[in-house]
Amino acid sequence: MEEKVVIPGDKLASIEEFIPGSGTASIGESIVSTVTGSKRPDMSNRVMNVKPARELTDAIPKVGDYVIGFVDSSSPTMAQVTIKAINDVPSHREFSGMLSLRDERRRKSSPIKAADTIRARVISTKNSIFHLGLDDQRCGVINTRCSNCGGTVVALGMDRVKCPECGLVDDRILSQDFVKPQRKANA
Ligand SMILES: [Zn+2]
């Protein structure tokens, strides 16, 4: 059987089917991968695990690293993030990161929402705080749900999503990793 590689943010199952195990987390109704690796569902205990392609890292994020994080809270200008992986390698430890957002458009709502999964880059570790930025197109939201109904959303360009369920159009700074697979699916 050919093994499919999953990446952080990939939906693996619903919370009705499985309990989130190692290398996974629950976001809304879904269990998503937090690591790059292969699915290892434990069918007898109904636990969904992902075996990381690479071993867990003890590394501490440093300037220039890409990190995968879950958004704990957010505002139009910043988001509080728990770092789960460094350069796509899952971390033994959880670090807190602070993502600063530019807000030239004076958004009414935050372009990154609590419970989103993001990829970001470490721009400074001053005062032992991991300051994160969205430097390039790989950075941004890699997994998100509708903030109104929790439905699956589709990308509208690189900075908005639309929910086909309830019709809500919402700001999101999207990673090309979120946008690209959808273009393929719709092609
Ligand atoms: Zn919706």
Note down, in words, how this protein is organized.
With 187 residues, this protein is mostly beta strands. It folds into two domains: 5-52, OB fold (Dihydrolipoamide Acetyltransferase, E2P); 66-181, OB fold (Dihydrolipoamide Acetyltransferase, E2P), CATH 2.40.50. Helices cover 6% and strands 44% of the residues. It has one helix at residues 176-186; strands at 5-6, 11-14, 19-20, 24-27, 30-33, 37-42, 47-52, 66-74, 78-86, 89-100, 117-124, 130-133, 140-143, 154-156, 160-162, 169-171. The strands form four sheets. A five-stranded mixed barrel has the order 8-9-10-12-11. A four-stranded mixed sheet has the order 1-6-7-3, with no helix packed on it. The protein has a three-stranded antiparallel sheet with strand order 2-5-4, with no helix packed on it. A hairpin with a 6-residue loop joins β15 and β16 (169-171). The radius of gyration is 16 Å and the shape is globular. The model has no long low-confidence stretch (mean pLDDT 88). The structure holds zinc ion. Zinc ion is lined by residues 146, 148-149, 151, 163, 165-166, 168.
